Amino acid sequence: MFRKCLKIEFSRAFHSLSTWLVLLVGIGISVFHFIRRVIPAAEFIIDPPFGYPASVFNSSLMLDFQAAENAVYYYVIPLLAVLPFGWSYISDLQDGYFKSIAIRTDKRKFMLAKYLAVFVSAGTMCMSIAVFDLILTMTEVAPVIPKAGIALLPIFGNYFLADVYFTHPFLYVGFYLLMGFLLAGGLAVLAIAVSNFVTNRYIALFFPFALFMVLHAILPFIGLGSYDPFQIVCPLQYYIPNMWTFLIELPVLLITGFAVYWIGGCRRDVI
Amino acid sequence: MLSRLSKKTKRILAVLLILCLTVGTGIRIWSVYSRWPNPPEIVTKIAEPIDYCGLTVTPDKVEVMTWEEAVAAYPVIIEDYPDGMTLDEIQMMQEYNGPTTQIFVTLTVINPTEQEITLPKGYSIAYWVYENDFEFNGADYITFLALNPDYTGTFEAGESQTVILPFSILLEYKSKAEVLSAASRLNLSYYPDNQYILFETEDYIHED
Predict the structure, then answer these.
(1) What is the DSSP letter of B200?
(2) pLDDT of res. A108
(3) Cα separations (Å) of B109 from B46, B142, B178?
(4) B29 interfacial to chain A (CB closer than 8 Å)
(5) Cβ contacts (< 8 Å) between B133 and chain A: which residues?
(6) Which of A43, A57, A139, A165 is the best residue to mutate to test the B interface, defined by the most B CB atoms within 10 Å of its own CB?
(7) pLDDT tens digit string along B53-96?
(8) What are the percentages of helix, strand and coil residues in chain B, rounded to 5?
(9) Nearest CA of chain B to the CA of A146: how many Å?
(10) Could you tell me the pTM of the whole model?
């Protein structure tokens, strides 16, 4: 039964109109960035011996530190994460879908399937935009390995994982894609967790975005900029994160979201 | 017309379309990469002569010092600053942000040819970039001129000149001990090839 629930929930998540809307918005940001920033960068003539060609590792949407599109993309991630399927739980609770499933089968199986579908669809949709942009950028700009001294890079020697960026840049990008996947998934789960306590679906939809923005505004202000959740997902490191940002903050978000969702759902009366 | 096709035909067409897109994108990515490949690294070590724009350049020594040690070793670096300025004020003026660790690279530059050589625009030795474990800086130009008053970028036939390149790295990023514990590079070029002099930790001259 769990496999059937899983199949249905994944199918609902990846075939919803809002999922395609998220993809469309993301691809729109990426294509706009490509036309406005990547094509001119690729045509820039380098001046030896100290000139350096544009690289994927300073021109793609993820790593273009001079592009407004980068900020737009990372700021809307909490919204893009919730849109594919984060709305579904509150909708299921309100239109009776949850009840009709729960009286036919073990509701915990349904809840687990829902959790996985929400988490995976959010992470996949948000990060597939970055992956699409990487591929699109590579059709104009080569993945030339970054050299610290050329000074046209988003990362400096004292940054977190700088050694990985300068020696294995694809690994650096991969790390932030994974972190982005987990954060987007975690934020979407937060939306379904909040759905247990509110009746207005817009509150559930906007809660992760509001929390993200509040933390992003307050933490740097009180000197904890490296713990800003924006630093988990954005590889540009406006405030240099440390290992604890990833080892503590991310698991706290993931565990809290899951626990609130699970306990709230299990306590819910269905009859 | 598409609606008349069977489900199987549609699926085959979709797979073919994805395949064509993938292959086309792959070819495009490969052609871009072939045009701008990673620069090959040309590495030389201390005391090994390098041919640079027709000149023979030999890196003789690399010294790592604190700011106070640098002033004691090369008092000329503070001579052009106004009287009454403290060492800290001069250092702040030099690097703007705070105290630094100083690195001095001494080179012997020889013109082995029988004609005068002038370094082309952009190829001055003063433009070389120092990197220590991904921290980097160019030479401080005022200090460079103080240390090398005769340097013009033009070398007479058979002339030999000693050139000292001064670099600084903010103490906040690298202390003297941290600089000494990592290998460093002096980059002569980045593209189309990355030519650099590699200084191993045992090459550093320093006082403790």
Answers:
(1) -
(2) 87
(3) 14, 20, 29
(4) yes
(5) 157, 163
(6) A139
(7) 999 999 999 999 998 899 999 999 888 787 778 878 877 777 66
(8) 35, 35, 35
(9) 9
(10) 0.91
Q: Could you give the strand order of the β-sheet that contains B41-45, starting from the edge strand earlier in sequence?
A: B41-45, B194-199, B184-189, B129-132, B135-138
Q: Which residue has the tokens 């992956």?
A: A131
Closest B-chain CA to A139:
B29
Q: Which two tokens stand for residue A13?
A: 């998540």
Tens digits of residue pLDDT in A242-258: 888 899 989 999 999 99
Q: Does B188 touch chain A (CB under 8 A)?
A: yes
Check: CB of residue B116 under 8 Å from CB of residue B154.
yes
* A153: pLDDT strictly greater than 80: yes
Q: Which residue of A has its CA nearest to B33?
A: A142
Angle B15-B21-B23 from CA coordinates, rounded to 5°: 100
From chain B, pick out residues whose CB is under 8 angstroms from the CB of A152: none
Question: A97 exposed, middle or buried (CB, 10 Å; 0-12, 13-18, 19+)?
Answer: middle
Residue A87 makes CB contacts below 8 A (sequence gap 6+) with A18, A191, A201, A204, A205
The SS3 call for residue B55 is: strand
- The per-residue pLDDT for range A39-66, each reduced to its tens digit, is 999 888 778 888 899 999 999 999 999 9
Question: Which pair of tokens denotes residue A61?
Answer: 């949407």
DSSP secondary structure string for all residues of chain A: -HHHHHHHHHHHHHTSHHHHHHHHHHHHHHHHHIIIIIHHHHHPPP-TTT-----HHHHSTTT-TT-HHHHHHHHHHHHHHHTTTTTHHHHHHHHTHHHHHHTTS-HHHHHHHHHHHHHHHHHHHHHHHHHHHHHHHHTTS--PPP-GGG--SS--TTSTTHHHHHH-HHHHHHHHHHHHHHHHHHHHHHHHHHTTT-S-HHHHHHHHHHHHHHHHHHHHHTT-GGG-THHHH-TT-SS---HHIIIIIHHHHHHHHHHHHHHHHHH----
The answer to which of A16-25, A92-101, A128-137, A168-177 has the lowest mean pLDDT is A92-101
Taking the C-alpha atoms of residue A9 and residue B113, their distance in angstroms, rounded to an integer, is 78
